[in-house]
Amino acid sequence: MPTFGLMPFSCRTLGVVVLVALLIGGPAMLAWRLQEWRYGRQLAQLAQSQSETLNRMTQAAAMQQKVEQDKRLALERQLSASEQTHYRALSDAQRDQDRLRDRLATADVRLSVLLDADDVAAGCAMPAATGAGGMDHGAPRARLDPTHAQRIIAITDEGDRGLIALQACQAYVRALAR
């Protein structure tokens, strides 16, 4: 059973086609019909090949999109964990500052500063703070006024918050750079 073009033909069918072609248009018409069938088959194969190529490209693009989405989700999880860590550090620092501020207000703690020994000798003597056990034989110190101590605590609190925010920004940039 010979095959021409797209479909198998029986000898009888082929004979009928050849006879009809000779009667209608002669050998030229038969050649045109055979050529048309052959080109039709080639076009169908080309269309199928293009369709398969397009499917492969679509699948590759979908796979790439999934990979990128997974990367983005991993980065979001990492940044969320980092944000929670820095928030916890910030709240811990705030709690410590509040405790220190309360202790200063209730006189549990007093802030003092070291005095320069040369200033003491030059006539700017300040009484040294004494400990609970007796005389303080260390460097002379002066107690700060509680209001000034509160201001110093507030300044250090702002500094602590700034450092924690800087660390959070640095961690964010490092996460994005990876």
Q: Would you give an account of this structure?
A:
- It contains four helices and four strands; from the N terminus they run ββααβαβα.
- The protein is mainly alpha-helical and about 180 residues long.
- It folds into two domains: about 5-110 and about 145-175; about 110-145, no CATH class.
- The strands form two sheets. Strands 1-2 form a two-stranded antiparallel ribbon. It has a two-stranded antiparallel ribbon with strand order 3-4.
- α1 (about 10-25) crosses α2 (about 25-105) and α2 (about 25-105) runs antiparallel to α4.
- The chain is rod-shaped, with a radius of gyration of 45 Å.
- About 0% of the residues are buried.
Main attributes?
4 helices; rod-shaped; 178 residues; 4 strands; mainly alpha; two-stranded antiparallel ribbon; 2 domains
Secondary structure layout plus pairing:
Elements: E1 3-4, E2 7-8, H1 11-24, H2 26-105, E3 112-114, H3 117-121, E4 141-143, H4 146-177
Antiparallel strand pairs: 1-2, 3-4
Quick synopsis:
With 178 residues, this protein is mainly alpha-helical. 74% of the residues lie in helices and 6% in strands.
Q: Distance between termini? A: 66 Å
Percent helix: over 70%
Order of helices and strands: EEHHEHEH
Major sheet: order of its strands? 1-2
Alpha plus pi helix count:
4
Which regions are unreliable across 5 or more consecutive residues at pLDDT < 50? 128-134
Percentage beta strand: 5-15%
> Major beta sheet, specifics?
2 strands, antiparallel
Mean pLDDT across all amino acids: 78
- Rg, Cα atoms, Å: 45 Å
Number of domains: 2
